Amino acid sequence: MRVTWLTAAILAASFGALSAPALCAGGTSEGQPARSSGAAAAGESGTDDIGKTVLPYQDVQGVLGKEIRSSADEDMGRVVDVLVDQAGHVRAAVIDFGGFLGVGNRKVVVDWTALHFAPADQRDRISLDLTRDQVKQAPEYKPGKPVVVLGALGPAGPDL
Amino acid sequence: MHTLEGGGAKDHATPKLPAHSRHGPAPSRASLRGLDWFVFFMADVQTGFGPFVSVYLTTQAWTQVDIGLVLTVGSLIGLAGQMPGGAVVDAARSERLVAACGVIAISASAIALAAWPIFLLVLLGRVLHAAASCLLGPAMAAISLGLVGHAGIGERLGRNARFASIGTGLAAAAMGALGYLTSSRYVFFATAALIVPTLIALFHIRPSEIDPERAHGGKHDAGLRKLGEGLLALAGNRALLILAACALLFHLANAAMLPLMGSLLTTRSSDWATVLIAACIVVPQLVVAAFSPWVGRQAQQWGRRPLLLLGFAALPLRGLLFGVVTDPFLLVSVQLLDGISAAALGVLVPLVIADVTRGTGRFNLAQGIVGSAVGIGASLSTTLAGYMSDSLGSAAAFFGLAALGFAGLVLVWTSLPETRADAVD
User: What's the predicted TM-score (pTM) here?
Assistant: First the structure.
């Protein structure tokens, strides 16, 4: 059972990305405190004094690779990507859902507003308003295909 | 304790072991046990490297692009290294030394992965692991053939398959539990630690009992520098090329079948999906562990073709059933067919290679050729199945895979000769 075989075509495609990710692969890459971007964008006029915002450590967190639990405490997989719209607003998270030993897992997209981030003392927890039953039928996230976002029902969702 | 065995073999013809005629004495019990456990622990080590890499790197906040790149590079090295790896084993004077180097390299790459998950080291680790695996596969078969010779290799390969299957199953369970209870990083430390029992088992195999000429399938003049010459010589080996083509078709049809099924199970059943997928993985392992030794013995009595046909026939049947059966619990029982295929091919493919390269001294290079065919088939399978599934639906994808498997069966039926040597020499 060899799950990791991919094709040469994929290699050709991904070699283009070789140089960029080589350095950012370390631990904490992108935290996404999207809503608080106002302060950071403010001071772009000067060349030397770029605006700085200091955030307390426990106020923000990286989300890549974080485990997600449902409200019923089911294992919902891990965050593997974050989707933003053209304005840069975070719209959805791609989660790697289900499966066993690399067989049967699928990438599905859930609405950002359906995710809840725990306070600092339980940093590794991200909870999702959906259950396994609701997520299992979702079509798989694939580049080049329309993205079906689950859980975009709450009143807190952004305007479309 | 081996005096018991040796004495018995001389006086009365024991029914179990065929007589080892002119190639010196029968291998000692210690060597054979050592090989059992070496195969077992190697399977453990390789399991640690399989599915856990991608989970581990995901937890280390790696992007999917990077993970895919690292895995793909590893796969391509693993593919390109098949033939050179076989040639190295053919040229080696000590199979044991080659195997030990491979084990150490894999252990080193596991430590690198666990301790420093940065891009460069992980990439190097994957490359090292893939290259070492290209040596270890043929080295294991060469040690087996060198110990028992052509007369006993069928039974030996069956036993190897049993120990490998048990090793994979236990390791997957233990490492899965370890990853769940601690973190997936410790899976790689555990993998690295397995170097100790692996090497102990390896050093129980007595080097004096591994006949190098036997291990290479004949007079030993091949080498890495003569790779081209060796390939030319084997290119004229019709039975070998047909076997490679059959193996390619088989894995083209087979490799994507379980992942496709697993993906479907995830969509169909939420509570049971994980358990069902686990069962779909474990059931074939159990079949292999139970039946491989029997396959090895029957291959000697019935010949190779009937068992190969059985293994190749089980695949298209499985594809058809996957396409029509929807009851999840019935699907798990369809996986019995996967076990039948795996048991038959796991024993018979190396066995037929040993048959058709007898006297050439290029047994391991020939394994590399077939290994390349397997790798190409398996790597194209996922893409092909994904394409069929996206455009035609999953049932059609299963039927398409079944058709490819059927083509493999037809090729075995029409073109692959019986390769069992009639005369025991």
Answer: 0.80
**B383 lies within 8 A of chain A by CB:** yes
Per residue in B57-80, pLDDT (tens digit) is 988 888 888 888 998 999 999 999
Number of domains in chain A: 1
Statement to judge: residues B149 and B61 lie in one domain: yes
Does residue B11 lie in a domain region? no
Q: Residue B422's CB: how many other CB atoms inside 10 A?
A: 6
pLDDT digits (tens, 9 = 90+) for B381-417: 988 998 898 889 889 999 999 999 999 999 999 988 8
How big, in percent rounded to 5, are the helix, strand and coil portions of chain B? 80, 0, 20
Domain membership of residue A100 (yes or no) is yes
Q: Is the pLDDT of residue A17 over 90?
A: no
Q: Which of A9-13, A153-157, B45-49, B77-81 has the lowest mean pLDDT?
A: A9-13
Structural domain containing residue A146: 72-152
Give residue B213's pLDDT: 81
Residue B220: CB atoms within 10 A of its CB come to 17
Q: Do A5 and B379 touch (CB under 8 A)?
A: yes
C-alpha–C-alpha distance, residues A146 and A6, integer Å: 24
CATH number of the CATH domain containing A89: 2.30.30.240
Verify that B104 and B38 share a domain, yes or no. yes
What does the pLDDT read at residue B288? 94
DSSP characters over B129-175: HHHHHHHHHHHHHHHHHHHHHHHHHHHHHHHHHHHHHHHHHHHHHHH
Residues B361-379: pLDDT tens digits? 888 899 999 999 999 999 9
Residue A5 lies in a domain: no
- Same domain as B209, residue B83: yes
In a domain, A28, yes or no: no
Best interface-test mutation with B: which of A2, A3, A5, A11 has the largest number of B CBs within 10 A?
A5
| Four-residue CA torsion sign, B182, B188, B193, B197 | positive
Alpha-carbon span A21 to A18, nearest angstrom: 6
- Full residue range of the structural domain in which residue B242 is found: 225-416
Residue in B55, B59, B118 nearest the CB of A25: B118
Structurally, how many domains does chain B consist of? Answer: 2
* Domain final position from B195, B216, B237: B216
The rounded distance, in Å, linking the Cα atoms of B128 and B180 is 27
